[in-house]
């Protein structure tokens, strides 16, 4: 197949993922169906799709709600493509560790935020105080 055609198909698949995959992933994450959300995220990455940062953060939050703090930390540290976690991603991971009663990790993540060039916000500080 011609390289330009392959590239065109990849762009088309990325657009399709953007329209349907993000919506599906977001719905699963909001319904706290963390296993299904992580599965959809993994399938997208395997198919060379790059999900939006908001979907990755939603998956981290869903994992945290289910007390799957280990998985939340893996998602934070292994974002797909060249995505860089933002303050929402970090706060979701801190919240996951808090729900998992991993207060040392909460403090560690809070301390690592500046080195990751992520500005702490009110939620970051309140999560740190809760730990």
Which features characterize this protein?
mainly alpha, globular, 131 residues
Characterize this entry briefly:
Pfam families: PPR (PF01535). The protein has 131 residues and is mainly alpha-helical.
The percentage of residues in β strands lies in under 5%
Average pLDDT reading: 76
What is the terminal separation in angstroms? Answer: 55 Å
Query: Any idea what the radius of gyration is?
Result: 16 Å
Sequence stretches where pLDDT stays below 50 over 5 or more residues:
1-20
Number of strands: 0
Range of helix content: over 70%
Query: How many strands, which pairing sense, and closed or not: the largest β-sheet?
Result: none
Number of domains: 1
- Judging from the principal axes of the Cα atoms, what is the shape? globular
> What's the SSE pattern?
HHHHHHH
Backbone structural class:
mainly alpha
Description of the structure:
The protein is an all-alpha fold. The chain has one domain. Helix content is 73%, strand content 0%. The protein has 7 helices and no strands. Helix 3 (53-65) packs parallel to helix 5 (87-99). The chain is globular and about 35 Å long. The termini are far apart. The model is unreliable at 1-20 (pLDDT under 50).
């Amino acid at each position: 197949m011609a390289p330009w055609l392959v590239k065109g198909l990849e762009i088309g698949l990325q657009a399709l993922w953007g329209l349907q995959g993000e919506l599906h992933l977001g719905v699963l994450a909001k319904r706290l169906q963390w296993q299904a959300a992580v599965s959809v995220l993994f399938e997208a990455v395997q198919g060379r799709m790059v999900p939006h940062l908001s979907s990755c953060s939603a998956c981290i939050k869903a994992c945290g709600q289910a007390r799957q703090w280990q998985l939340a930390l893996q998602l934070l540290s292994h974002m797909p493509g060249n995505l860089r976690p933002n303050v929402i991603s970090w706060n979701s991971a801190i919240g996951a560790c808090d729900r998992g009663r991993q207060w040392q990790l909460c403090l560690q993540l809070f301390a690592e935020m500046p080195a990751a060039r992520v500005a702490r916000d009110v939620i970051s500080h309140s999560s740190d105080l809760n730990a």
